[in-house]
Amino acid sequence: MGWRLAAAQAATSAALELHYHLRLEHPSGHLVAVEIEVSKVDEPTLDFAIPAWSPGRYAIYDFAKNLQEFSATRADGHPLPWSQPDKETWRVDARSAGGTVRVRYFVFANDLNGSFSQYDTTHANLNGASIYMYVAGHKQDPVALDVETPAADWKIVSGFSLSGDQHSFAAANYDRLIDTPMEISPEVTTSEFQESGKTFRIAVHAYAESPGPRKELEDGVRKIVHSEMAMMPAPDFDHYTFLFHFAPDIQAGDGMEHLNSTQIMISQPLDSGGAREAVEVAAHEFFHLWNVKRLRPAALGPFDYTREDYTPSLWFAEGVTSYYAYVHL
Ligand SMILES: [Zn+2]
Ligand SMILES: [Zn+2]
Fold first, then answer.
1. How is domain 189-328 classified at the architecture level of CATH?
2. Among 37, 42, 141, 159, which is disulfide-ready with 19 (CB 3.0 to 4.6 Å)?
3. Does the interface predicted TM-score (ipTM) exceed 0.90?
4. Which ligand number lies closest to the CA of residue 296?
5. Ligand nearest to the CA of 190
6. Over the stretch 177-206, which tens digit does the pLDDT of each residue have?
7. Cα of 53 to ligand 1 centre, how many Å?
8. Residue ranges per structural domain of the chain
9. Of 261, 195, 201, 257, the residue nearest 230 (C-alpha)
């Protein structure tokens, strides 16, 4: 019966106040500094965990391997004891915390793709599951996020806001937080268009002096959005962001769908071949809005980040998405 009592207590534990703080300080070291301040703590221990995988990805990524220098303190800076019961969990002894626990750690980030993160002198491209720990039992609690950029000309582009100068954000819960990748850069350029009463933003980081065939890319994206929106029910967002990278030096391209944004990495420059590939991937990822993100196979959610989620319906999720992507190109 003991476990039943424990489970009942966990299910009814009051919401915590969760405040995440990202500091981008030393780009050449590829280290993203994360602080999580947790208030209204009345539990004797808090488990901070980093996901083993990311929704939409069908493999274990072991994000814990990039975490460094974990520490935990009270609000006044006094250290709190912690232990690591397994490789992705940090258990903080909160008995003397006085209601507030503050943890800090660094994430080594030098992978540009739809799963990991990269922070260097040109940008911070952040995928939430590789950056943010969650508090076990409290993934449903609302989250506040503040981001400090290295300089004022670094714009923040994400599904959170259409303003590149906004630095404070709110997410309904941890799932939303990590389903909102961020591109933070002085080099990213954006344009917007309207479709069916919603705003669509195209953000491009192209690592090149010449702007490339930007119009070809924008016309292609506009066409697939128009066509897919005309066929499918209206999605439940006000704005949607396509985050494109044209990075000839990465090993492979990638595409990853999110709640109201998508990350698309093309391993070519933004020339006409690169633009064409980008529009093809965009057609596929945008269609995931309806197939997977909203009509996803039951086994893909709600998410348990401690283990892989395999589903026999993937052939449907990916196959149908690819079919409709080509119908709309
Ligand atoms: Zn970038
Ligand atoms: Zn897909």
1. Orthogonal Bundle (1.10)
2. 37
3. yes
4. 2
5. 1
6. 999 999 999 999 999 999 999 999 999 999
7. 22
8. 10-185, 189-328
9. 195
